[in-house]
């Protein structure tokens, strides 16, 4: 089934509506949160940037817009800046991947179209200070995107020790979350949610300026397979919130066992304070060189 035309294949629209609805509830969004299913995290991130850029321009922004983000932000945002003509302003992080919220806020200005934070970041699994950054961005009228491509389908059930990072945070304007990671769907399924239909409308591309049919694309692709969408739908229907909670609990137990095991090995260390099912491992510089363990050998 070609998801290009849900009027021909109405089941596509029904599947997408259900998956988006499940993700909206999972990410604590209200009725104003809307979105689409994309082919993956890169497309979700690209569309979040394209939407923010267009809304920034519509609001009177002039010059070259910027994306402000910690240096640990995913490479997809480097690609988005390159593709869509924005400057990427990277904010330094500590050796364990943590960023100071004040350092991010200091880089926000009239050219900032979007600030991006991660839940968690890929290199170190550090959860950025989302509440503080999103609040400061909102006070300046700047959009804030949470890249939860890794954590979006697992952090909601990870535990009460995870600080608020989703649509409960008032300044968060969009979230990307990959169903083909801890949503257990096959590759090719991600969700991009926006707070407000005006933001979603700016994600679309539409034209009648050619001799063929009217083109209205909510995502970057024209023709696209509905198979990953259907698989994501089937998994959410089969597992439900209880099933995801159970799998997440098992995942957390496994992760904590691995972290404890690594921390018990002399010469190797867990980097920083990871949140969620990922963690980074490095050689322990606090022991003599001859007792350090190359993390690649350990892996």
Please give a structural write-up.
The structure is a single chain. The strands form 3 sheets. Strands 1-7-6-5-4-2-3 form a 7-stranded mixed beta sheet, with helices on both faces. Strands 8-9 form a two-stranded antiparallel sheet. It is an alpha/beta fold. Helix content is 36%, strand content 17%. The model has no long low-confidence stretch (mean pLDDT 96). Helix 1 (10-26) packs parallel to helix 7 and helix 2 (41-58) packs across helix 3. It contains 8 helices and 11 strands. The radius of gyration is 20 Å and the shape is globular.
Short précis:
With 299 residues, the protein is of the alpha/beta class. It has eight helices and eleven strands.
């Amino acid at each position: 089934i070609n998801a290009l035309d849900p009027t021909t294949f109405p089941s596509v629209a029904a599947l997408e509506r259900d998956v988006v609805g499940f993700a909206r509830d999972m990410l604590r969004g209200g009725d104003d949160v809307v979105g689409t299913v994309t082919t993956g995290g890169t497309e979700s991130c690209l569309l979040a940037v394209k939407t923010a850029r267009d809304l920034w321009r519509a609001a009177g922004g002039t010059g070259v817009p910027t994306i402000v983000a910690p240096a640990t932000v995913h490479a997809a945002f480097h690609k988005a800046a390159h593709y869509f003509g924005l400057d990427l302003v990277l904010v330094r992080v500590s050796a364990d991947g943590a960023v100071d919220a004040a350092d991010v806020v200091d880089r926000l200005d009239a050219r900032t179209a979007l600030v991006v934070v991660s839940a968690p970041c890929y290199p170190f699994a550090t959860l950025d200070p989302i509440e503080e950054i999103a609040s400061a961005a909102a006070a300046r009228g700047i959009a804030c995107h949470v890249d939860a491509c890794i954590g979006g389908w697992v952090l909601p059930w990870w535990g009460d020790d995870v600080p608020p990072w989703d649509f409960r945070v008032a300044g968060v304007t969009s979230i990307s979350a990959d169903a083909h990671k801890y949503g257990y769907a096959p590759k090719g399924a991600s969700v991009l949610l926006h707070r407000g239909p005006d933001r979603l409308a700016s994600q679309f591309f539409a034209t009648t300026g050619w001799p063929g049919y009217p083109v209205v694309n909510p995502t970057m692709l024209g023709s696209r397979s509905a198979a990953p969408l259907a698989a994501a739908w089937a998994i959410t229907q089969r597992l439900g919130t209880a099933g995801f909670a159970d799998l997440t609990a098992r995942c957390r137990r496994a992760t904590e066992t691995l972290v404890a095991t690594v921390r018990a090995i002399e010469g190797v260390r867990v980097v920083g304070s990871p949140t969620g099912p990922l963690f980074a491992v490095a050689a322990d510089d606090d022991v003599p060189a001859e007792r350090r363990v190359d993390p690649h050998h350990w892996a």
